[in-house]
């Protein structure tokens, strides 16, 4: 048991799917998993373990932002025997090459966040996912015949920003295709602890066209991304 996860060692599978939204975690567990049970609900950060097509898997929300995923991913990796965390998140597109509901695999993340510097003194603004987990996700998308994009993602501490550094500039200077708020901290923790993390995103907002999905779509509408992540479990096991 930790301050933030009320569970025992063995309650979590070695691979955890991690959306930000607790109700997306509940949707994934109730829609896709067999023999599913809730394993923690501290602060309403819902966590479930069950099986998908015979492979044991957990789903747990991260909450929003790097401090939050920083806590949950650290505790899962260090106290609950978790080896792989696949973030299944939403993002805002920085380019018209991405459309609403498209799926994006993060190949690298860039961030202005102080998370890594505060955690262990690292100052690089870039972090990378596990090449192995990302390859599994990419193979899984091919097997399902689901087209996905891949590229650099901006991990931001701020959802509502003034144009101090505009998204157009971040797109041009860094090459970021989209923005979300957790992957940099997740990748940092995984690398620091010698574990694996990857990040799949669905475009929920469009910063160029200003289109947006509803909160209900963010909870239950991202099936293509979720099914790619679930179909990669056979490789992760
Ligand atoms: O939909 P999730 O996975 O929460 O991801 C995105 O949505 C939240 C902001 O609305 C942030 O957590 C951001 O990273
Ligand atoms: O961080 C995020 C996530 C989804 N949509 C955005 O615009 N930003």
Name a few traits of the molecule:
237 residues, alpha/beta, Rossmann fold, five-stranded mixed β-barrel, 9 helices, 10 strands, binds 1-O-phosphono-alpha-D-ribofuranose
Could you please describe the fold and organization of this structure?
InterPro entries: DeoD-type, Nucleoside_phosphorylase_d, Nucleoside_phosphorylase_sf. Keywords: Glycosyltransferase, Transferase. One of its GO terms (molecular function) is uridine phosphorylase activity. The protein is an alpha/beta fold and 237 residues long. It has one domain (15-236): 3-Layer(aba) Sandwich (Rossmann fold), CATH 3.40.50.1580. The protein is 34% helix and 27% strand. The protein has nine helices and ten strands. Strand 3 (47-52) and strand 4 form a beta hairpin. The structure holds 1-O-phosphono-alpha-D-ribofuranose and uracil (URA). Uracil (URA) binds next to strand 5, strand 9 and strand 10.
């Amino acid at each position: 048991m930790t301050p933030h996860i009320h569970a025992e060692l063995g309650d979590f599978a070695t691979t955890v799917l991690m959306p930000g939204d607790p109700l997306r975690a509940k949707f994934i567990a109730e829609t896709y998993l067999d023999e599913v049970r809730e394993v923690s609900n501290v602060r309403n950060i819902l966590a479930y373990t069950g099986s998908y097509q015979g492979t044991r898997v957990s789903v747990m929300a991260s909450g929003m932002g790097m401090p939050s995923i920083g806590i949950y991913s650290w505790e899962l990796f260090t106290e609950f025997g978790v080896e792989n965390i696949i973030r299944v998140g939403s993002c805002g597109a920085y380019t018209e090459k991405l459309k609403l509901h498209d799926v994006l695999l993060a190949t690298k993340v860039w961030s202005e966040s102080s998370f890594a510097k505060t955690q262990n003194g690292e100052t690089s603004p870039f972090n990378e996912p596990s090449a192995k987990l990302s390859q599994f996700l990419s193979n899984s998308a091919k097997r399902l015949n689901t087209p996905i994009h891949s590229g650099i993602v901006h991990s931001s501490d701020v959802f509502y920003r003034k144009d101090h550094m505009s998204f157009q500039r971040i797109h041009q200077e860094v090459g970021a295709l989209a923005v979300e708020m957790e992957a940099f901290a997740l990748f940092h923790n995984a690398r620091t602890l010698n574990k694996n993390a990857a990040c799949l995103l669905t475009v929920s907002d469009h910063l160029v066209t200003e289109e947006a999905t509803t909160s209900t779509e963010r909870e239950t509408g991202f099936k293509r991304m979720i099914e790619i992540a679930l179909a990669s479990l056979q490789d992760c096991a």
